Amino acid sequence: MPRAPSVRNHSCGTDRAEPSVYTPPVIQAAAVMAPCDVLGVGANSVDYVNRLPAYPEPQGPFSKMRIQEQAICCGGQTATALATCVRFGLRARYIGATGTDENGKRVRAELTERGVDMTEAVIRDGPNQFAIIMVDEQSGERIVLWDRDERLRLRPRELPQDAVRTCRLVHVDDVDQPAAIVAATLGRETGIPVTSDIDGLTDRTMELVKALSFPIFAEHVPPELTGIKDPERALRRLREQHPGTLVVTLGAQGAAALVGDGFIHSPGFRVTAADTTGAGDVFRGGFIYGVLAGWPVDRTLRFANAAAAISCTRLGAMNGVPALEEVEQLVASVSA
């Protein structure tokens, strides 16, 4: 008999006249926002992860397949990056919109349990963002099908300026670009570094890129922006519009950066992948850790690559976030 797929869920009035006594008004002191290391502005998601024997195909034996394993996991670009930062010992605060449905409750509870400050998160009357993820168990590669209610769009005016002033670094993704541009601009004006997750292309992408300290592109973005496939040449073309460090993630091949005029390629770590969902987000959490530690870019890339590699050995985005000790051990073992 075939085995069934496993599922983890993861006062009274009175008529007597009282003497008139002046009582001074009580003035409530303004709440002081606690300092944090990282402020994240961007997306969250609840992911329905399905591990499949192979990628689905319209014809042939893979047009119908039994799901091998199912899991409900929390994710989203910025949310997962912040969960990574906290696992590495940093204090993180999240600003983004969540829904009022069970998925919204789930993601707020998950981030809170993981130690992310959710006091500035926005709650919208509507469904939370979710994704259906199909993972090929042979390679660990995945296809993501997602939906996000328009009511979840974060407005720039919902960004408290004190949140930027009380952090050491701002991290944004490009899901709500107007809010991301405002957050990045405030960060740069405050004199703190701003990291990013650039995963799409719109008419405001370059406006966001120019507002960042560290543009970190998904592999497909530099070619789309420049028309150049080669990562080094594409970054050098982008250098014409941004003078700072430019970074691109390269999947199993690791990551690369253009620092000044020098190109750095940091190879990926060899692992047996179970699910690549969230690897880029974990990479960014590792990169943030390196930036705040004051490391040079080559060391930061290597550390972030190791963190991302470990995350690929586990099912789910936040479920894949490694401990700091695991990352340090992998880096040390390969360096030895």
Description:
The protein is of the alpha/beta class. The protein has 10 helices and 15 strands. A hairpin with a 5-residue loop joins strand 8 and strand 9 (142-147). It starts with 5 loop residues before the first strand and ends with a helix.
Throw out a few tags for this protein.
five-stranded mixed sheet
Strand order of the largest sheet: 1-4-3-8-9
Rounded to the nearest angstrom, the distance between the terminal CA atoms is 48 Å
Determine Rg (CA atoms, Å). Answer: 22 Å
The class by helix and strand makeup works out as alpha/beta
Shape: globular
Approximate strand percentage: 15-25%
Number of strands: 15
Number of helices: 10
Major sheet size, sense and barrel closure: 5 strands, mixed
What order do the helices and strands follow? EEEEHEEHEEEHEHEHEHHEEEHHH
Q: How helical, in percent, are the residues?
A: 25-40%
Mean pLDDT: 91
Unreliable residue runs: 1-20, 22-30
Outline:
The chain is an alpha/beta fold. The chain has helices at residues 77-87, 102-113, 161-165, 177-190, 205-210, 221-226, 231-238, 279-293, 297-311, 324-335; strands at residues 6-8, 36-41, 45-52, 69-75, 92-95, 97-98, 122-123, 130-136, 142-147, 167-173, 194-197, 216-217, 246-249, 255-259, 262-266. α1 (77-87) packs across α8.
SSE topology sketch:
Blueprint lengths: L5 E3 L27 E6 L3 E8 L16 E7 L1 H11 L4 E4 L1 E2 L3 H12 L8 E2 L6 E7 L5 E6 L13 H5 L1 E7 L3 H14 L3 E4 L7 H6 L5 E2 L3 H6 L4 H8 L7 E4 L5 E5 L2 E5 L12 H15 L3 H15 L12 H12 L1
Parallel strand pairs: 1-4, 2-5, 2-10, 3-8, 6-7, 10-11, 12-13
Antiparallel strand pairs: 3-4, 8-9, 13-14, 14-15
Helix pairs in contact: 1-8, 8-9, 9-10
